[in-house]
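Sample intake sheet
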Amino acid sequence: MGVGSWGSFPTPFAKVYTSKMPITACDLLYDRMLPFYEALSVEVGAVSTDNGREYCGRPDNHPYELLLAMDGIEHRTTRIRSPRTNGFVERMNRTLLDECFRVAGRATWYLEPDEIQRDLDRFLAYYNLERSHQGYRLKGRTPAQALREALGITELPPLVATEEEATTPAA
């Protein structure tokens, strides 16, 4: 899974994959994150990731590094063993475990990754649109509220694909 964020307001994007490869990192970026910000006419100037092999490699031949370079997006990595720079991602991973996977996993026996993705998308919609956050940056707002206020807009494009879009093959 991957999580992306914009500015000071975390707006997670996540997908379920069966492997941790550079191509899956590229897929999350180009399937979820970049189209969302493009629909808002917000230029993504930098992406911050951990130092995993799915994100980092030789800039001249690593798929993720190459795609970022092609779009002129700076790649920032967190400092190793530094909770200060990686704290948001670690907290999001814990929230996903505590509030999504441990809850839904008790009620559902998953057979396919698509089933996990369905529950993950439902949780992300709740997390971004309905769940208030008490952190010092969001101060009781939802990530969607904070993003709308920061951009001075009233509507956001969909954060996750609807179930119809997810099950409809591309033309």
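Comment: Residues 1-9, 166-171 have pLDDT under 50 and may be disordered. The chain has one domain: 22-166.
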